[in-house]
Amino acid sequence: MATSNLTDRIKPNGISIVSYLECLKKGDYQIPTFQREIVWDKRNVKKLWDSIYKFYPLGSILIWKTDIKLHNHRKIGGNVIPTEDTRTQFQYILDGQQRTTSLLTSIYGGEISGKPGFNPTVFIDLTIPFQDNIDDSSYNHRFIFWDEIDDKNGTFHRNMGRKKKYDDGLILKLVDIKNDFQDIFTKLNSIPNNKVILDNLWRVKNVLDNYQIAYIDLKGIAVGEVCQIFERINQAGKPLDIFDIG
């Protein structure tokens, strides 16, 4: 095989978080059913967003481009992912399922297996000041879930402070910053002593617009090679064979 053909097999690239998730929701990317079950954890999701917030790299998403149609997950984190039978080329996520599901449910909500009734949507507390890039504790209070905000009509005292900040518009869903940034900025700009709040707001806006998720396209890869690649990048998982892929 010529060297040029070998280099064409692996193509690194980047895509914004929002664009990646929009492509996923349109069905441009699929997660094959041979992928292991999601191990979803609140703390890990918060750390994921802390890394993004600090513009740390996350590691590449590995995508296999092929004309082979596989069985795939129709629901990712409870979100229905369409499948078009008219497609002639398919893009399957070989590595990055955990990050993909966490990002999707963080912004668009969904369902987490084994956690009935839990809302995985991520909120940000804009009052938590950014200290420095080596701060490894404030993320736990900056990125929060609804069960850490809901005061159950004033009966859950531990959450009352956060619920008030939520009611005052100082704790927001990430998706609301994505969709309604200008209105949110206008409201928060009128608050006295708002530097920390606006700094955080602009930082999240910048992250959603400009943070690039690294991904690697694999093209011209035969099924047998995909089995080996999957096994090597998922060393803790069971070996994969062509019958799993079919």
Please give a handful of descriptors for the protein shown.
alpha+beta, 9 strands, 246 residues, disordered C terminus, elongated, four-stranded mixed sheet, three-stranded antiparallel sheet
Structure, briefly:
The chain is of the alpha+beta class. The protein has helices at residues 3-8, 17-25, 42-53, 97-108, 139-142, 160-167, 174-188, 195-210, 223-233, 242-245, and strands spanning 10-16, 61-66, 75-76, 79-80, 90-95, 123-125, 143-144, 171-173, 212-219.
Explain the overall architecture:
The chain is an alpha+beta fold and 246 residues long. It has one domain (3-235). Helices cover 39% and strands 16% of the residues. The protein is built from 10 helices and 9 strands. It has helices at residues 3-8, 17-25, 42-53, 97-108, 139-142, 160-167, 174-188, 195-210, 223-233, 242-245, and strands at 10-16, 61-66, 75-76, 79-80, 90-95, 123-125, 143-144, 171-173, 212-219. Helix 7 (174-188) runs antiparallel to helix 8. The longest helix has 16 residues, at 195-210. The chain starts with a helix and ends with a helix. The model is unreliable at 240-246 (pLDDT under 50).
User: What are the secondary-structure elements, in order, as H or E?
Assistant: HEHHEEEEHEHEHEHHEHH
- Based on DSSP secondary structure assignment, what is the total number of beta strands? 9
- Taken from the alpha-carbon principal axes, the silhouette is elongated
Beginning-to-end CA distance, first to last residue: 26 Å
Coarse structural class: alpha+beta
Query: What's the overall average pLDDT, rounded?
Result: 86
What topology, given as strand order, has the largest sheet? 1-9-2-5
Share of residues in strands: 15-25%
> How would you characterize the largest beta sheet?
4 strands, mixed
| Poorly predicted runs | 240-246
For the CA atoms, what is the radius of gyration? 20 Å
Helix content: 25-40%
